[in-house]
Write a structure and sequence with these properties.
Structural class: alpha/beta
Largest sheet: 7 strands, mixed
Helix content: 25-40%
CATH topology of the largest domain: Quinone Oxidoreductase, Chain A, domain 1
CATH superfamily of the largest domain: Medium-chain alcohol dehydrogenases, catalytic domain
Number of domains: 2
Low-confidence stretches: none
Amino acid sequence: MRVRGAVLREMGRPAPYAESRPLEIAELELAPPGPGELLVKVGAAGLCHSDLSVIDGSRPRVMPMVLGHEAAGTVVAVGPDVKGFAEGDHVVLAFVPVCGECAPCTTGRPALCEPGAKANVAGTLLSGERRFSGPEGEELNHHLGVSAFCDHVVVDQHSAVKVDPDLPFEIAALFGCAVLTGVGAALNAAQVAEGETVAVFGLGGVGLAALLGARLAGAGRIVAVDLVDEKLDHARRLGAVPVKADENVVEAVREATGGGAQKAIETVGNARVLAQAYEAAGRGGVTVTVGLPHPDQRLDIQAVSLVTEERTLKGSYLGSCDPRTDIPKLIDYYKDGRLPVDELLTHKIALEDVNEAFDRLRTGGAVRQAIIF
């Protein structure tokens, strides 16, 4: 079938993207779903810093690629051997297709699914196949098994989670990445407990979701760190203590948390910021990172403090979640009023405006933007 999507043909075009136009809006050919696959009409797709990291080349991926990895939509067709999905189902798409059979999946760590990771690196679906082709018949790669910046997509059934149809698509989409990653980092990886002090470094969609997750867990004091005043004001309205990310940020966070945060969460994707988050944690503190720095970046921390202060430094991918169980649970928190995900969505845009929207994201002028189809 003929579809319309945003294709990235090369990484590293210079900003501003409104001028360099790295994402080309094009008519594409989408093959029907194969065994175990779904055809989904996309209702909304979120713009994430991980997409921006592919555009600017700091997160290398195979090219050309239909970009986007955070989306919600409606199943319009199912392939052979699909189980648990039917036409008309509303689904949230998650950026790791969880096979359910590999060693990480069967030992409680589905975010590390090995076939899912292999497919994502290769730019394919879980089957190893690609379903997109360009106007001249060229094969196009999938982004993290989703390729959300397209009005219709084919995904593996293991990338989809069925949700209630009364959830607006632009809100449902955020549960596939921002909420799953940020709230999951607070609840699953950092395991924030009631009354604990928490510092969140970076207040994009994932960072603010981590803030909401810490609040949900009953954190006693939350310190929010960013460069952008508007984001700090946003965090203040959500109950956090704002701290400007300047040269004194470590001292400021340690002072605001009474000697160092018990839990620190870094969402920026920068090794220097991660080192600051580690330094801002107190004795016995836990530092969790969900950011994705360029593979060439190296982390410099005081190694002995891991022992002498019993510090913990850990990574969290996909919020250390299982999308199949955690997405419905987090949506229930949203419906109960305990997780105000609406606070993350700052802009609604059309597909044609995607390049300008990434300029807005790049300069800190947005938290989460959603393409509405």
